[in-house]
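Hi again,

Forgot to attach this to my earlier email, sorry! This is the prediction with iron/sulfur cluster bound. I've pasted everything inline since the attachment limit keeps bouncing my files.
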Amino acid sequence: MSSLEELVEKVKARGAKRVLVQLPEGLITRSRELEEKLSGEGIQSYVSLDPCYGACDLRDCEAKRLECDLLVHVGHSDFGVKSSVPVLYYEWFFDWDPVRILEKNLEKLPEKMGLVSSVNYLDSLAIVREHLENRGKTCFLAGQILGCDVSEALKIEKMVDCYLYVGSGAFHPLGLALKTKKPVFSLNPDKQILGKVDPDLFLRQREAAKALAGDCSSFGILVSTKPGQIQTEKILNVKKKLESEGKKAFIFAMDCITPEKLLGLNLDCYINCACPRIAIENRTSFQKPILNPDEITF
Ligand code: SF4
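Structure tokens for the complex follow:
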């Protein structure tokens, strides 16, 4: 299990004198405690209050401006985003016992399962697997999935009857349910429940947006400046494709993409080239249809 004490030891071991810390939402309440512990070790710290949903969102430029010698990124694992200052990733694992909920819900689960989780609950997968196999189920371990990358899970799709996600919230299991035809179950340690994930509403919203986009003539291509979300080639390909269909296309860059920032643009439709989940969970918050590049069908 992870702890602030262990985190401070890791920062100390890196010899850092001044750090910028990025905490996930659930740990912001402990930022004062963390600052006190770091300062007790002679390390000056800033805690970033900009929201941080993934390791795509490294605040290295801010760390540099604040003259920090280390960026401490808590709650997500390194997936290779380049940074202009050294980064300490501290994944933050939660410890819990899933056996009671599994036992209560055993009959809901089909025979062959693919086990997946967010990084924070990776340690629980071995316990889940052992318990289910002792109860006669067959488990295949796919490991970690991200909200934008469920490729590890899809590799075992043909071998399983369903997936079982272990972790908090709906974000990760919904991402998987939108990419597979197999049922996805979620074992939620916060709510202490096991339930089936239903992607139907989001699929219907996607189909409606696709249908509307076909009739649109002017498009805004939305790009985030978060370092792990910049995909220049993809952005230019989208522009090229739209223009080859006779559409007008304009590129806009910002940090967080929110509907309010787009209000004055007077365009018919948006193509989201940033985190794909912006156009899934938040689709109906935008006043115009918004699609991810892989949803363009004209
Ligand atoms: S792009 Fe989106 S889903 Fe992927 S890591 Fe970043 S915030 Fe998470």
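The mean pLDDT is 97. The two ends are 49 Å apart (CA to CA).

That should be everything now.

G.
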